[in-house]
Amino acid sequence: MFASPIIVAPMAGGTTTPELALAARGAGAFAYAAGGYRSAESLAEHLAPLRAAGGDFGVNLFVPRSGPLASGDASSLARYRLELAGDAERLGAELPAELPPADGPRARDYWDEKLDLLLHDPVPLVSFTFGLAPEPVVTALRAKGTRVVASVTSVAEALAAAATGVDALVVQHSDAGGHSAAFLPGAERAAPGVAGLVARVRAAVGLPLVGAGGIGDAATAKAVLAAGAEAVQLGTAVLRSDESGARALHKDALADPAYTATGVTRAFTGRAARALVNGFVRDHSANAPHAYPEVHFLTGPLRAAAAAAGDRESVNLWAGTAWQKAAAGPVAGIVEGFLRML
After folding, report:
1. Would you say 194 and 181 are in contact if contact means Cβ atoms under 8 Å apart?
2. Averaged over 61-79, what is the pLDDT?
3. I need a labelling partner for 264 at 20 to 30 A (CA). Which of 51, 82, 120, 212 fits?
4. Contacts with 210 (C-beta within 8 Å, 6 or more apart), sequence order
5. Domain spans, the chain
6. β partners of residue 6
7. CA distances (Å), 261 to each of 106, 218, 255, 258, 266, in order?
């Protein structure tokens, strides 16, 4: 299914650059392009260097929410806007007067347009997160020769994904940095690490598995492979690499001993995501609504202003639980270091 036991994760928002993907692949990893937060035109440009280089690679897409926000979540969103007013004033930013409509292309992350692109100009592999691609979408992509992968966080999600006809699963433990892929209630966040979660899913489904979440060293990677995965996916482990498009303040924070913990929060985007615990996480996690992508759009000007000011206490510093093991330097060295020890 994958040519390498090491996969470099698709990290949206500019972190996964073509340079990162190409360098990782050159070092022996399977690499992705990150399709999240991009229009179809932007994704086509992002893919161009990978297409030109030839060979195997993947593209990751966000599955949009179906339908409008529940009334309770909409009310919580309105209260959260009021709560953020002080941050906007402090940062010299302005909260958006209106948010993109839930049924519009931007709120749906240009889902239809990007699927059209990938069906008319196929890529070797497409993975989905935040939910399941409908079975007809999976069938259409596979008919084009594209392998299809779903991201899951529990046995129940794995069984649901397998029923859609996908070729493989990324099994993401809650130790992962950034957004959780969970889409059903009751995800197995109590599983004893990613190896334990992979073992549970391995016992339930026969599809090829990729383990993800909290994999900061080769010993953990080996345990995940021994539990039944055919590959492991690295995210935070490569965030500080030279080719990563993560902001300098994010890379610096990962190496700063002043940060001592990560936490799962909806404060930045309205979707559960693991980040270094900073002031924004402490101040707003309790009241942040379950409202993605609305909160993402709402806090966008705050995050941009904070980043421009170098304010690490007000931006999303995504990080998995093994963040302290993330190394700087060329991504090739990081990938080769894992491969040597497997």
Report:
1. no
2. 94
3. 82
4. 2, 7, 149, 168, 169, 170, 171, 229, 230, 231, 232, 233
5. 6-67+103-242+326-341, 69-101+260-316
6. 232
7. 33, 22, 12, 9, 16
Q: Note the pLDDT tens digit of each residue in 198-228.
A: 999 999 999 999 999 999 999 999 999 999 9
Token pair 């999240």 is found at: 36
| Neighbour tally for 97: CB within 10 Å | 5
For residues 318 and 94, what is the distance between their CA atoms, to the nearest angstrom?
24
Digit-coded pLDDT (tens) for 280-321: 999 999 999 999 999 999 999 999 999 999 999 999 999 999
Architecture field, domain 6-67+103-242+326-341: Alpha-Beta Barrel (3.20)
Assign 204 to helix, strand or coil: helix
Token pair recorded at residue 15? 């972190």
Strands (E) located in the chain: 6-8, 30-34, 58-62, 125-129, 147-152, 168-172, 178-179, 209-212, 231-234, 262-265, 273-276
User: Which residue is it, tokens 């399941």?
Assistant: 132
Q: Which amino acid is at 15?
A: T
Long-range contacts of 200-204 (CB under 8 A, 24+ apart): 200/155, 201/152, 201/154, 201/155, 201/158, 201/169, 201/171, 201/228, 202/227, 202/228, 202/229, 204/155, 204/158, 204/159
324 with 282: CB under 8 angstroms? no
Chain position carrying tokens 């390498």: 4
Cα–Cα dist 13/35, whole Å = 9
* CA-based R_g, the chain, Å: 19
Q: Which two tokens stand for residue 342?
A: 């497997």
- How many CA atoms lie within 13 Å of 162's alpha carbon, on the beta-carbon side? 15
Strand order across the beta sheet in which 178-179 lies: 178-179, 273-276, 262-265
Looking at the whole model, is its pTM more than 0.85? yes
pLDDT-derived band at 186, boundaries 50, 70, 90: confident
* Angle (deg, nearest 10), helices 71-83 and 294-309: 20
